[in-house]
Amino acid sequence: MAKPRITEALDKLSSKKPIKYGVYSTAVIIFFALILLPPILGIIIKWNTMQQVLIKPELMSRALTAVANSFTIALFVSTIDVIAGVPMAWLITRGKSKWLNVLDTLADIPFVVPTAALGYSLLLFWSEPEGISSLFGSSLISPGWLLVTLLHFTFSYPVVVRVIVGALLDYKMEYEQASRTLGAPPLAAARTVTFPIIKPSLIAAFILAFSRSISETGATIIVAGIIFENGPVFIQKITDDFKAVPPRIDQFSYQGSLAFASFVLIVISLIIFGIIRILGPKLKLPIKRIWPTFERKLSYSKATLSRDSVTLLIFFAIILAPSLFVALPAFEAIFTETLPNAILGVSIWSEYWQSLILSYSLGAIVTVFNVIIGLPMAIIVARRKAGTLTSTVLDLLVNVPLIVPSIALGVSLKFFWKETFTFIPEMLLLIFAHLAITYPYFVRSMSAAIERIGVDTEEAARTLGAKPLGVFRTIILPLTKYSILSGAIMVFTRSVSETGATLAVVTTLRTAPVVIVDWVKQKLPVPVTPLEIGLGCGFLILFSFIILLALRLIVRGKGRY
Amino acid sequence: MQQVCLIRTRHRAKGGLTVPDVRIVNVTKKFGDIVAVKNVSLHIYDKEYFSLLGPSGCGKTTLLRLIAGLIQPDEGEIYIGDRLVNDIPPEDRDIGFVFQTFALFPHMNAWNNVIYGPKVKGFDMKKADTIGHEVLDMVRLHERLDAFPNELSGGMIQRIAVARALAAGAKTLLLDEPLGQLDAKVRNELRYEIRRMSKDLGLTAIHVTHDQSEAMAISDRIAVMKKGKVLQVGTPKELYMNPQSIFVAHFIGESNFLEGYVVNENTNEVSIEFRGGIRVSVTNKTVKRDDRVVLAIRPEVFIIEKGRKKSKNSMLGSVERVTFEGTNIRYEVRLENQDLVVIVKPSLVGEWFNTGEKVTVSFSSEKTRVFAYPDVGLREEIAVE
Ligand SMILES: Nc1ncnc2c1ncn2[C@@H]1O[C@H](COP(=O)(O)OP(=O)(O)O)[C@@H](O)[C@H]1O
Ligand SMILES: [Mg+2]
């Protein structure tokens, strides 16, 4: 089959230097103009308003306490995540049972459930009378810091497990086998060889869990109760106070609080990320000491059996059951008039459906944009197209939005765009915010995939006569299409779940998680029943599942996300 | 220098080359539908240097990993020393393993790789230190011990990998193509070194390779494997002089295979007729009249003479190609019946022949072997894939 004219022409064009540079520099410029600089400039624009907070010690100490809570929980949860995630990943990759495939899929569920729905599910399970509390007569865990911690553990755990499972699958078993033949019992082999080798992935898992915990807003608002505040909850409450009629806070204090809290969140996040980046590689597991008899005992029979049992118990009781508990009211609602009302879009439901459509179309738009502007950036990062130093710096910068709390990012984005471009449509603001948040996910997974393709494969294609675009079309694209898909899935789920940035940038548009938060918090003029909230969450989960399942079928067996 | 040699004393055990040290009894291992090792039985003697030889994919690595306990057999028993080890984990089997990829720990420098075994077995640091130096002496490596594996050359990595396996102090050394990843030159040097060390330490070594010249050069005995089965076990000489199958005759050294039928049968001899009516008679007691057979003749067995000579077992042909290989000259001769035979002669002894020259080739019958024609066909029988 002859190549269509247009592809041929484009292929030819792509070997022209100006065109190549044009494409790459456009990608870099868009990254700076749309993703990296606006949030930074936003804070700078409102720099002065921060004085409003500094002169009010009460407000300042409240903001600082909230921010401190954010980081305490994030650090604690990420640590526990890695500790609890390692045995689970080990079980999934090393176990021999056929059921492990099922377990593997189940472990993804909390990842698929949009966090606002997850938050409500946990609230029902742990605190409301119909949950586990029904066994105890009183609320087992009331909304507050403990429930927030549990929630963050629940939604970040699957991410950590996924990353460690990936690392264990990629890891060359021969290292561990070598260690065994040299006399190390399984536990000693894992401790002295396997984990030190996959340490970069453990650190990456920690960072991912950390950044998710720092950013999570919607579900946290749901389970935080009335007293507990972390960064995002504080920002949301201040916003509520300002929007109340009459406002409970003046405009300067409002803007100042937002700018101040966002600034502190961003700066501390960057510092912590920097520290992990620098200290991580130096962190050593204790390989010096060996305890032959003790480790031998722990490696076999009862010890491993009880380790696996505890792992499974934690997974089912703390992760899976609470995540899916919302299915109960959703199911109950099917047999009441809630279902027909919902389907017909009566009263609150019409807004619900609109928000759902908005969420999914937003997800789709953001995904498409990511592919377009993210791919060239991924190639620059993976292939060091901008010179070694610049490319390394870009690689680091791409990660920035990942570690900046999303509500803080939203707040400064809004400051920036509203100041520079007053009549910016809210939808555009929403797209920018979601783009900034999801961009690193796509670029990171794509650049990793491209790095896995040897440069020599590309060079072979070039020596056979392919033009740069031809190489991309015939080599890179076919070899990475599953990574593109899985990157797209990640972007899509992240966007549909995102509440913090959405709340920060919009006033009228409402996405599905925002609506769920409002329902749970009873912010509507009419009361919303638990059955309605349950069904709302149920639909959200159901559609997300269907979309993900469809995508997963396409990706099946080829790439993991 | 009078130093207590920890590694050596540990290995100086009972003598004699007759005690089976590793015994494999009817072992089978399947991966799904693939039978990687099919009902294999082997005795490997104490202090023996033993090779598993066969084309790639024939199950050598699998068999070695079964002995090491890295995988479990579906059927059969494995004994190391006097112990049935089927249920014993690798770390308790008293074996050292050198991996094909060497698998040096990338997060440890060369020195820490070497003393990993002693350390993980709970020896005190001083003892580990002594052992480390001993084995490094043995592999003749003293520089760059603080370098990490990714900074070392192939030959050094191989030495470290062997040193690491020796340092663990095992009595049985398992080597999976330990020379496969090295340059030809380094490979030829190191093959004798490995054998020397193993002999010095009195180890039982099982060496996996697909390179028959390597196996022939260093082994006390060789097991030739094909498609999961052991075809023949013997010393290099036995395998070369007395191959029991077409495959072994082909895989060990080189053979010409001529196809024909048995047309006459005497007490000790049979007459075989090839294509084109050529008849030869050879010593054999196993084939009968009318059997379809394959006659295997080594290239150096042929006598080649100018012109038309009439003698027993002679055939006419013309030289089609001459290759000068240094020590030897190699002739490809097209016989009258269009079969092609390869003949190798020492280059500095006897006369030379030119391309196109008419020649008579003959052979003495006791240096050939007759096999029944394989059911799967000759081509398939000697295929190495
Ligand atoms: N872990 C495994 N899973 C599935 N098949 C395997 C595995 N290991 C080996 N095999 C198969 O078993 C056969 C023998 O392999 P191997 O022992 O590695 O051969 P060799 O080392 O002789 O090249 C091959 O067909 C190979 O594909
Ligand atoms: Mg092999």
How does this model look, in words?
The complex is a heterodimer of chains A (561) and B (385). Chain A is built from 28 helices and no strands. By secondary structure, chain A is mainly alpha-helical. Chain A is globular, with a radius of gyration of 25 Å. The two termini of chain A are 35 Å apart. The model of chain A has no long low-confidence stretch (mean pLDDT 87). The longest helix of chain B has 17 residues, at 184-200. Chains A and B meet through helix 9 and helix 10 of A and strand 6 and helix 4 of B. The structure holds adenosine-5'-diphosphate (ADP) and magnesium ion (MG). Magnesium ion (MG) binds at residues 60-61, 100, 177 of chain B.
Distance between the termini of chain A: 35 Å
Of all chain pairs, the largest interface belongs to: A-B, 25 and 27 residues
Q: Give helix % range of chain A.
A: over 70%
Oligomer status: heterodimer
